Amino acid sequence: MRPRILFPLFAEATALSGIGSRLGKLVTKIAGPRVIDLLWHLPSGIVDRSFSPKIAEAPTGQVATITLQVDAHVPPEVARRPYRVRCHDDTGSLSLIFFRVNTAYLNNILPVGAIRVVSGQIERYDDEIQIAHPDHIVTVEDRASLANVEPVYALTRGLTNKSLTKAISSAISRIPNLDEWIELSYRNAQGWGEWRESLIRAHAPECEADLSTASLVRRRLAFDELLAHQLTLALVKDRLQQRPAPVLLGDGTMRSRVRAALPFELTQSQLTALAEIEDDLPREKPMLRLLQGDVGSGKTVIGFMVMLAALESGRQAAFMAPTELLVRQHAQVMGPLAEAAGVKLAVLTGGDRGNSRRVILDRLAAGDINMVVGTHALFQESVKFRNLAMAVIDEQHRFGVHQRLALERKGPGLHMLVMTATPIPRTLTLTVYGHMDVSRLTEKPVGRLPITTRAIPLERLNEVTDGVCRTVEQGGRVYWICPQITESEATDLAAATDRHAALARELGGQVGLVHGKMPALLRQQTMEAFAEGELKVLVATTVIEVGVDVPEATIMVIEHAERFGLAQLHQLRGRVGRGRAPSSCIMLYAMPLGNAARQRLKILRETEDGFRIAEEDVRLRGSGDVLGTRQSGIPLFKLADLSAHGDLLAAAHDDARLVVQRDPQLNSSRGRVLRTLLYLFQRDEAIRLLRSG
After folding, report:
1. How many Å apart are CA 637 and CA 687, to the nearest integer?
2. Calpha distance 75→77 (Å, rounded)
């Protein structure tokens, strides 16, 4: 159970003073539903209220804290006009402006003749000095209650900084004193204070430097979050490797047959990755390895060869992909290789029904089928294996830790190779794959031609359309991608539909359309028609970003390329250049082009190296949205900024690894405190792993 000392932090935010149901919904929207979420919602700026001029010296546009006397209340003569409270000091006069106010309330806090201290932004209107809706109004005696520096938080509509600050102050009062989980020598070397002190100071910045990710307080809190994350991954790895794994010592005969049947030579990085993987298989601990390769780098062949190692040892192997379309494409690629190896390959997806499905399930359970390619349907309880020893998971970020653990139950001590075509920079690899060994494919297969990449203004759209028509007349195939213009899916569809209609006027029934709102079956049929050449142009939204393999497609047109992220543009470009013919990517952009968009298009023109592109993405946009998509698998941290805290991530990784090596059940004195850390950052999955042993 969560330690009792943390209970106050995990209460609903509405338990705090002043947070009713209305404010509770707004607080939940901007920070989260619990007290702890408010504590993680750190200030994004400050307001300096130390400037206290006389009225005549107050500059327009600046926040000032002024002592003045109330002269008169002037209610509006017409509705919707402002309510004015006229005031003065010994240098001049000033009006306090209010809209839609409670008159009795104003008369109470600003009685005529009273001296008040007012803080807000100075404005001028018709030569009159004024403050509209002052941030603070206090008596002279309460002047000390006004902080000279006030934190400013990210807000949502309807929530004021004043009410959020009050809620956070109430949350701070609940922060308990917790035993230290950071090694004292490391903490002292970093110059960090205790956790409670650091969190309180983070909400009380005294200058702009205190808001920096480089400040000692922010680095301390970032390390706490990163350590909780890395400890979770280390525990997952330990859990996956607890059971003895089947020793896979195949004689290599199947792999030799496939190597001989391949119409190309494996690249050096493919050979290196294969050697690294094959070195894991004879060990008694389960392999848990990531194969990270750019689009078109040849991961599927490596995955197939690794499965053969299991088959040569008399075991079963499974290959998983996130969609039926991807499963069928992998099966198509693997089919001839399976035939060369003398292997019967089965396919199992969620769409399989009736007798054919039952036959496959029975044969898998009996061991008659020793290699299967499938979707997440392989996770289902009804799918039993006789002696599953190897699982290869493609586009691994679509499958979470829980799903991988579920698959591991299909075969105790299961060896796992997970693959991704989404290049992730080295600086971020630990956050997603900290519990895995990593192999990288850095070359394209021999014979792959470079893709010519050009950026062209939308004003030249007609030229591009003419070029597409010429390509189709010559037997070529073309992708035309339309952007996500707004959050409204309807708007996106209108863009794709309009482009489809325009191209269809030129090319008739040779143009297909796919988007996310289409029925899955129709989308799949349209993509298959394009792959088989019945359609020559495929107009699409980013639904085709990953997974469609049409070697005959040689042109990729990306409309409004400036609206796409760098890595997303790279993924889209990777849909062409997969055959032997020269290929082009045309990025159509609208003017004027912003600086960040200009840099993105420039980088795309300069390189096809997905790893360099991923590094540039971090440089341009930071780690928060590093791949331009929530499907990247990169966790969203609340306190850590991976572009600024890379050194802390490495330190957290090393610390977590040592902790689990020495104390895998976290039963030592430090281990018990680290359990509190895991609960604090809601890493309950790690605690469940500890309980399961």
Report:
1. 20
2. 7
The structure tokens listed for 635 are 């966790």
CA distances from 447 to 305, 453, 578, 582 (A): 21, 18, 10, 11
Quick check: 200 and 175 in contact, CB under 8 A?
A: yes
481 in Cβ contact with 541 (< 8 Å): yes
pLDDT tens digit sequence for 380-439: 888 899 999 999 998 755 555 566 666 767 777 889 998 987 777 766 777 777 778 889
Enumerate the H helices of 112-194 as residue ranges. 161-172, 184-190
Here the tokens at position 224 are: 């706490």
152: left (phi over 0), alpha (psi -120 to 50) or beta: beta
Token pair listed for 640: 């850590």
Whole-structure pTM over 0.85, yes or no? no
For residues 398 and 631, the answer to whether their CB atoms sit within 8 Å is: yes
- CA gap 682, 32 in Å, rounded: 13
pLDDT at 693 over 60: no
Angstrom distance (rounded) from CA 326 to CA 415: 22
**8 A C-beta contact, residue 64 and residue 91:** no
Query: Considering just the CA atoms, what is the radius of gyration of the chain in Å?
Result: 31
Amino acid at 414: L
Measured CA angle at 686 (ends 682, 690), to 5 deg? 135
Separation of alpha carbons 190 and 174, rounded Å: 27
Q: Six-digit token pair at 520?
A: 């899955």
Give the residue-averaged pLDDT of 162-170.
Answer: 94
Q: For tokens 């790893």, what's the residue?
A: 611
What torsion do the CA atoms of 120, 124, 130, 134 make, to the nearest 10 degrees?
A: -20
Neighbours of 369 (CB within 10 A): 21
Bigger pLDDT: 626 vs 100: 100
**Look-up of token digits 């968009």:** 597
Which residue, among 634, 554, 567, 548, has the nearest Cα to 607 in the 3D structure?
A: 567
Cα(61)–Cα(65) distance, integer angstroms? 13
Task: Kindly report, residue by residue over 555-587, the tens digit of the pLDDT.
Answer: 999 999 998 888 889 888 988 988 888 999 999
d(CA 693, CA 609): 42
Three-state secondary structure readout of 424-464: CCHHHHHHHHCCCEEEEECCCCCCCCCEEEEEEEHHHHHHH
